[in-house]
Amino acid sequence: MKKILFLLSISLWLISCNQKPEKPIDNNKLSSEEKIDSTNIKTLFNSALTNGKSYEWLRDLTSNIGSRLSGSEGAAKSVIWGKNLMKEVGLDSVWLQPVMVPHWVRGEKEIATYTTNGVQKNVPICALGFSVATPKSGVLAEVIEVKSIEEAKTLGAKMEGKIVFFNRPFDDKLINTFKAYGGCVDQRVNGAAVCGEFGAKGVIVRSMTNSIDDYPHTGTMNYGNLAEEKYIPTAAISSRAANILSDDLKENPTLKFYFKQSCQTLPDAPSFNVVGEIKGSETPENIMVVGGHLDSWDLGDGAHDDGTGIVQSLEVAYLFKKNNIKPKNTLRVIFFMNEENGTRGAKKYAELAKLNKENHIGGLESDAGGHTPRGFSIDANSSNTKLLQSWKKLLSPYGLHDLDKGGSGADIGPLKDENVTLVGYRPDSQRYFDYHHTSIDTFDKVNKRELELGSASMASILYLMDKYLYSNSPVKP
Amino acid sequence: MKKILFLLSISLWLISCNQKPEKPIDNNKLSSEEKIDSTNIKTLFNSALTNGKSYEWLRDLTSNIGSRLSGSEGAAKSVIWGKNLMKEVGLDSVWLQPVMVPHWVRGEKEIATYTTNGVQKNVPICALGFSVATPKSGVLAEVIEVKSIEEAKTLGAKMEGKIVFFNRPFDDKLINTFKAYGGCVDQRVNGAAVCGEFGAKGVIVRSMTNSIDDYPHTGTMNYGNLAEEKYIPTAAISSRAANILSDDLKENPTLKFYFKQSCQTLPDAPSFNVVGEIKGSETPENIMVVGGHLDSWDLGDGAHDDGTGIVQSLEVAYLFKKNNIKPKNTLRVIFFMNEENGTRGAKKYAELAKLNKENHIGGLESDAGGHTPRGFSIDANSSNTKLLQSWKKLLSPYGLHDLDKGGSGADIGPLKDENVTLVGYRPDSQRYFDYHHTSIDTFDKVNKRELELGSASMASILYLMDKYLYSNSPVKP
Q1: Largest CA distance in chain A
Q2: pLDDT of B264-317, one tens digit each?
Q3: What is the largest CA-CA distance in chain B?
Q4: Considering the entire predicted model, what is its pTM?
Q5: pLDDT per position as a tens digit, B388-416
Q6: H helices within B296-381, ranges in order?
Q7: CATH for A30-104+267-472 (3.20.20.140, 3.40.630.10, 3.40.50.300, 1.20.1050.10)
Q8: Backbone φ, ψ for residue B48 (5° rounding)
Q9: Measured between CB atoms, does B305 come within 8 Å of chain A?
């Protein structure tokens, strides 16, 4: 009897597993054209999940090349890697687009420390991109903590000779962590420009993350219109160190913080965007781009930022070819160079597109990590926005529910025009800022299926854009 | 000029960050009652994300107690831990519900190996729950590979003296990995019962996972109606080892596989469900339950399965109390014992509920991991299913789009009745089977925000169920 009860309970539980719904689309609710689309989208997902290449490509990029900061040896190697890989996938043509990029180098590992109540504390720190070095002996000064650029400005001359500590944390209440990032990153980008003007000796910034941990997050900054002789060194400290320092300052407001860094900006270096395309079968003069950025910060391996975007973009073309989906418009895959500190590759691409009178009708960028798909953000005129939103019933069975108006991405952004439909791929954002711009943005943080689902999501919306924006396009055959 | 261009590009990129929409609900589309609900749900999310306790509770449970297999010392400790924690949260009453549970122990670490082409290969292996041991000297036999229970049955007497190797992998094309699990797990549960009947010497099963890695996944099995003298030992091998063994068998079909395990089933042991409740303010005789299971497999720390469900369930009550949301019906938090191998706690709870003529109106279970929220699965009559689905506009701003009919969970399932609305929390499933029932189901795999968003998601639907199922309930004040 016990056995029978047990068997029954196992069956019940198996049924409960099986009942978790796969959510097939109700075919009766689809037009005949939509049925074809639904089938093709299913094919793209099946193909990505069973024969996807992106995960092994990413493993190769991150383990055999690693970090790829503009101007670095890693960046140069990744250009060759990208070109060879595009050829291997069999794109109709592959070329390199020369672009001069900033060349900032970190130098020796940074040091930061302070002593309070007789206890010396070492602080996880990293210089911000474009920061100048400290003097060789480092910077030692009292610390003023502020929560915003505005607060810093009100300090004025009080900050002379001091280190200003920007410590406004992410707003954890925001569901989308990119919004929290957007609400804080001005401290990192503009802090040194503001405080340099008033004679501060340096700026340290709380790392841009929701997580409380020991990893400093680097990222770009700039000195704005500050006179060069007023440039001051600036760095990020880990979120946990920021909390501890803030507490220590309450108890001991005159403690002296020390940090040392030897970074420098070298002359601009030659580099390349890597571009490949599948020629359009009907209107090859119309171009749709899909891309991410090949460069990364120097601390980790640039796995989520933006190795995933690179391999997903190429996988879109691979999935089209593998499943014999021939785009009507030309599909161009772009590995942009220098998104992180300058977006020179993006600007060069848009500049040449204009110069060569190329007709771009759409673009898709993946630069928000390789986590589980949630949807897309649409930057288009209102009729095309509505068109894309009408595809929700085809996309939602794959977890793609978000089809809101919003930005696309820093690399395709310069192509913006009334008639160009730009789309940003939007995976789940919860884990992204755990790794962003740190030493732990590494391959092991990427889940194979999440990555592949992203490739398939991107391929699906591009398949629809190719089919329907085409007939919607101002340039017709 | 360069600087100005650079500043422009930074601004553009900041705008693009800020444009990622937070998706506020359009208040004009809500009724006045829905506006109140929307505000309360926002409060629950804000509270979980800024003052949540679940992550630290989970750290405590997983690091200070660890695994909690029924009948083990860890399980006993976790009962006390759970009772104390419920009291600490300030539930109106907390009690233990005695239940006898199976007591299976793994014994020494299992060994598996075989030699092919002169090369000895060690195989990551673990016994399945309820399996008998091998003889002390182990089992050595030729291997027959099959892909299904049906295929095994057709072998009949051919499997006598052999080890049968079940090697049907997950269907990677299924988006929901639970569905893939449901389509494979019969091999693990029933393989030994079928092959024991025909005199096989043992059964090895490919681990239940999408991932190709080196971790064997344990889990429950049963011998069904097999006579006890025909019981044969059964174990899981890692997915990578399964692939390699399958290849080796093609080349060398007569290779001999060896494995040894010393697990045994001891007499049933005394244990407890841990139960606590907040008394309903209007109809305390109506009960809504929220729970997960306190027991876990013995290999990891039971972080995702089901530590997350436990701490999220208690956090629901914590969030209600913290935000002064007084449930009209009694809200009962249950840490069920023995979900993994027997669901005795669930049966005992349902049995006593019936015996005591308790009126359950709803239940929510979290036993699908602590990943980013996707929605809920609803097991209710059609009018209540529609009612719950009508809350989509309130829930979707938090990524909760899935509100499909389906199973709820193994622990609340026995409460099923025409008038009881049962709901399963459904987080994203992509990473779950990377860890499920393995040594790597540990705290570091859980993301704090994803966990907290889950607690808030659960609290939100329970808030709505409490408010609206109440007026919908057959028992009225």
Answers
A1: 87
A2: 999 999 999 999 999 999 999 999 999 999 999 999 999 999 999 999 999 999
A3: 87
A4: 0.95
A5: 999 999 999 999 999 999 999 999 999 99
A6: 308-322, 344-355
A7: 3.40.630.10
A8: -65, -40
A9: no
Of the pLDDT bands very low, low, confident and very high (cuts 50, 70, 90), residue B23 is: low
What is the band of B18 on the pLDDT scale with cuts at 50, 70, 90?
A: very low
- Measured between CB atoms, which of A46, A182, A430 is closest to B447? A430
Lookup: tokens for B237 = 């091998």
Which candidate from A22, A222, A401 shows the least CB-CB separation from B10?
Answer: A222
Mean confidence (pLDDT) of chain B: 94
> Confidence class of residue B29 from pLDDT cuts 50, 70 and 90?
confident
Q: How big is the A-B interface in CB pairs under 8 Å?
A: 198
Which of B3, B7, B16 to mutate to test binding with chain A, by most A CBs within 10 Å of its CB? B16
A404-433 pLDDT, tens digit per residue, is: 999 999 999 999 999 999 999 999 999 999
- Residue B243 class from Cβ within 10 Å (0-12 exposed, 13-18 middle, 19+ buried)? middle
Query: B109: which 2 tokens?
Result: 């670490």
DSSP string over B238-275: -HHHHHHHHHHHHH-TT-EEEEE---EEEEEEEEEEEE
- List of E strands, A138-295: 139-146, 163-166, 202-206, 234-237, 256-260, 264-278, 283-293
A114 touches A249 (CB < 8 A): no
CA distance A401 to chain B (A): 7
What is the distance in angstroms between the Cα of A140 and the nearest Cα belonging to chain B? 29
Rounded CA-CA distance A364/A93 in Å is 20
Beta strands in B57-116 (DSSP E): 93-105, 111-116
H helices, E strands: number in chain B: 14, 16
pLDDT digits (tens, 9 = 90+) for B133-190: 999 999 999 999 999 999 999 999 999 999 999 999 999 999 999 999 999 999 999 9
Quote the mean pLDDT of chain A: 94
For residue B473, what pLDDT is reported? 54
Instruction: Write out pLDDT tens, residues B335-378.
Output: 999 999 999 999 999 999 999 999 999 999 999 999 999 999 99
Domain range list for chain B: 30-103+267-472, 107-262
Burial A383-417 (b: 16+ CB within 10 A, else e): ebbebbeebeebbbbbbbbbbbebbbbbbbbbbbe
> Which pLDDT belongs to residue B24?
58
Token readout for A463 is: 């398949």
Q: State whether residue A85 is helix, strand or coil.
A: helix
Which residues have C-beta within 8 Å of that of residue A216, sequence separation ≥ 6? A124, A125, A126, A207, A235, A236, A237, A238, A241, A438
Residue corresponding to tokens 């030729």: B142
DSSP state of A20: S
Domain B107-262 has CATH 3.50.50.60: no
In whole angstroms, give the CA distance from residue A370 to residue A306: 8
Pick from A223, A399, A448: CB nearest B374: A399
Tens digits of residue pLDDT in A334-374? 999 999 999 999 999 999 999 999 999 999 999 999 999 99
DSSP letter string over A332-376? Answer: EEEEES-TTTT-HHHHHHHHHHHHTT-EEEEEEE--S-SSSEEEE
User: What angle in degrees, to the nearest 10, is found between the helix axes of B308-322 and B32-51?
Assistant: 120
Contacts of A469 (CB under 8 A, 6+ apart): A288, A329, A361, A362, A384, A387, A421
CA A22 to chain centre: 30
| Residue B9 to residue A342, Cβ atoms within 8 A | yes
Specify the DSSP element, H or E, that contains A463.
helix A448-472
Tally Cβ neighbours within 10 Å of residue B75: 25
Residues of A in contact with B219 (CB under 8 A): none
- CATH says B30-103+267-472 is which class? alpha beta
